[in-house]
Amino acid sequence: MARINDNYLKLKAGYLFPEISRRVKAFAEANPDAPIIKLGIGDVTEPLPEACRTAIIEATKEMGDRSTFKGYGPEQGYLWLREKIATQDFQARGCDIDASEIFISDGSKCDCGNILDIFGKDNKIAVTDPVYPVYVDTNVMAGNTGEINEKGEYEGLVYLPISAENNFTAEIPTEKVDLIYLCFPNNPTGATATKEHLQAWVNYAKEHQSIILFDAAYEAFISDPSLPHSIYEIEGAKDCAIEFRSFSKNAGFTGTRCALTVVPKNLTGKASDGSDVEIWKLWNRRQSTKFNGVSYVVQRGAEAVYSEAGVQQTKALISFYLENAKIICEKLTSAGIQVYGGTNAPYVWVKTPFNLSSWDFFDKLLQTTYVVGTPGSGFGAAGEGYFRISAFNTRENVNEAMKRITENFQA
Ligand SMILES: *Cc1c(COP(=O)(O)O)cnc(C)c1O
């Protein structure tokens, strides 16, 4: 008899995005002429930078010639890509990260989940609330939690509430936790962390021998020069942090797939006999066994992000989305709606007006303006009363959506 992984049965049925689709579909059927604009998605809309496309085409040509054809590459990624990342993303910002500590992958989403392979079952795990749902669901699947309660929280996880009251940055816990997920700039709130805030986390992690899982998928959107882009800009972080990065949001690789995870060589965890084990060795073993690398063609595309043209073109992409975010913030504010985020992140986190629940605001916005966003409560109990609007869209759609909101929606 084939037994299944019962942990999957604990998962809350994929609720948020299917429910959004259901409501949008019902509305569209009842109002077939309503021009709906979707500002709910966390996916990019603008095309791949030219530098990346050219590199991908050139690499494809190489694959068509026996003398330049490539079969399996290194599981960790090609050194020419890892070296560019090490020098331009890390060493240029004063982070002592070596190419050998960088692992190329086909996505941060998978890395965030896969990393649990190398950690034990009895870790105390902390996430913020609201949170990127991948961190929670992968822990449920791995058997690191109990059942879900009526608030939507899983037994065994430590939830750190974030809201306007704490600037959307979690208080350092008083209890001891072993693994902590942090995401800055944050999805869904668009919040950022100062060096001081991250230093407090690093100090905590070092004191408790915990490991921080730092998701920097949106670091390229940081425009405030005082903010850290990497956890390794913080003193001591190499002893207690793993960092996830992705080409999805800075260079539009959501459909092309390339990301990276940094595992410092000196980072250690405890074996059950009390000995210290290098995390790098475990992750290297895990990747070599379960992964055969990202395609050569795609890695050449990612490498082009670091060329002179690539740097300029990705900057232009990010400025484009940040300008969208600025327009969203300005227009919503002028409609009397309180907004957060949106200055160093492609997400605007809206306080729902009239104390509406996240879903009531979703319905009201859809019915009065035909604009679709994402209810904050879908990211966790503490997201109730908030709403996420994404800046990933065309300028035309953003302008039109904001025009409708300012004309039809005064809070
Ligand atoms: C988009 C996103 C990522 C990137 O995921 P990929 O699998 O690399 O596309 C990672 N973390 C967060 C929070 C994201 O929103």
From TrEMBL:
Report the protein's function: Involved in the synthesis of meso-diaminopimelate (m-DAP or DL-DAP), required for both lysine and peptidoglycan biosynthesis. Catalyzes the direct conversion of tetrahydrodipicolinate to LL-diaminopimelate.
Q: What is its EC number?
A: 2.6.1.83
According to its UniProt entry, this protein's organism is: Hyella patelloides LEGE 07179
Residues covered by the Aminotransferase class I/classII large domain: 35-405
Q: What CDD domains does the entry give?
A: AAT_like
Q: From the UniProt record, give the pathway where this protein acts.
A: Amino-acid biosynthesis; L-lysine biosynthesis via DAP pathway; LL-2,6-diaminopimelate from (S)-tetrahydrodipicolinate (aminotransferase route): step 1/1
Binding residues annotated for pyridoxal 5'-phosphate, in chain numbering = Y72, S108, K109, Y132, N187, Y218, S246, F247, S248, R257, N292
The record's Pfam families line, in alphabetical order, gives:
Aminotran_1_2 (PF00155)
Record-annotated residues binding substrate?
A: Y15, G42, K109, Y132, N187, N292, R388
GO biological process terms, alphabetically, are: lysine biosynthetic process via diaminopimelate, diaminopimelate-aminotransferase pathway
UniProt name for this protein: LL-diaminopimelate aminotransferase
| Domain of life per record | Bacteria
Q: Which InterPro entries match?
A: Aminotransferase_I/II_large (IPR004839), DapL/ALD1 (IPR019942), PyrdxlP-dep_Trfase (IPR015424), PyrdxlP-dep_Trfase_major (IPR015421), PyrdxlP-dep_Trfase_small (IPR015422)
Sequence positions bearing N6-(pyridoxal phosphate)lysine: K249
Q: Which family does it belong to?
A: Belongs to the class-I pyridoxal-phosphate-dependent aminotransferase family. LL-diaminopimelate aminotransferase subfamily.
Note the SUPFAM superfamilies from the entry: PLP-dependent transferases (SSF53383)
Instruction: Quickly give the catalysed reaction.
Output: (2S,6S)-2,6-diaminopimelate + 2-oxoglutarate = (S)-2,3,4,5-tetrahydrodipicolinate + L-glutamate + H2O + H(+)
Which cofactors are required for activity?
pyridoxal 5'-phosphate
Q: What does the record note on quaternary structure?
A: Homodimer.
List the molecular function annotations (GO) for this entry: L,L-diaminopimelate aminotransferase activity; pyridoxal phosphate binding
- Coiled-coil ranges (or none): none
Give the keywords, sorted: Aminotransferase, Pyridoxal phosphate, Transferase
